[in-house]
Design goal:
CATH class of one domain: Alpha Beta
Strand order of the largest sheet: 1-2-5-4-3
Structural class: alpha+beta
CATH superfamily of one domain: Beta Polymerase, domain 2
Shape: globular
CATH architecture of one domain: 2-Layer Sandwich
Strand content: 5-15%
Length: 202
């Protein structure tokens, strides 16, 4: 049986003591393989198989493919009811956009307006209360503050509630111009036909 040889311990120039880093580097491989470096173990194990499997599934889950596995008619009906909850608080110009075949983070985007900061908050609160009654809790809520804009994220549905002049400034509808609009029954009082009259009343 061969004895393990160790290289000489280089001394530090200043103290004459052995440097621990040099000591670690000076070890000679065991099992008679001196001068040979061990090649890294190939990642062909179960872990790599799982990783590659997950990656392949991610690539397959395009928005259109993922939408095929969801109950879109049921989600569409729920989204329409959420927009009705906004209309209960006199929301203006509701728009529901079907992005299930184009987006990977949601299926439907709702956009509504309020006539004032206070009404924007009331609309958002009513949508949250309705979705909670259906067992859907808000996953995230963001906004600019002061009742100018509120984003409600329910996963399959994202709703933007704007103070109307702010909505016109950002014009989110134009970002999804190619996505189909879901037909809705909108009461006449929620249609904005005279914007100047609205702004003058604020």
């Amino acid at each position: 049986m061969k004895k393990i040889k160790r290289a000489a311990k280089p001394a530090s120039r200043k103290t004459g003591k052995t440097n621990p880093q040099h000591k670690a580097r000076a070890r000679i491989p065991v099992h008679g393989d001196a001068g040979k470096k061990k090649s890294p173990k190939p990642r062909g194990d179960a872990f790599s198989a799982r990783r590659s499997g997950v990656r392949s599934r991610e690539l397959e889950q395009t928005p259109a493919a993922a939408a095929a596995h969801r109950d879109l008619p049921e989600l569409r009906a729920l989204a329409l009811e959420a927009m009705d909850a906004a209309l209960d608080k006199k929301a203006l110009m509701p728009v529901l956009i079907d992005v299930s075949g184009m987006s990977s983070y949601t299926d439907f985007i709702g956009i509504v307006s309020g006539r004032s900061d206070r009404q924007v908050d009331a609309i958002a609160d009513n949508i949250i209360a309705f979705m909670k009654s259906r067992g859907r809790h808000v996953l995230g809520q963001e906004g600019s503050g002061g009742g100018r804009w509120t984003l409600l994220d329910f996963g399959s549905l994202v709703v933007h509630v704007f103070y109307h002049p702010v909505r016109e400034f950002y014009d989110l509808e134009s970002l999804w111009i190619e996505a189909p609009r879901v037909k809705m029954e909108i009461p006449p009082e929620s249609m904005l036909t005279q914007p100047d009259a609205l702004y003058g009343a604020l």
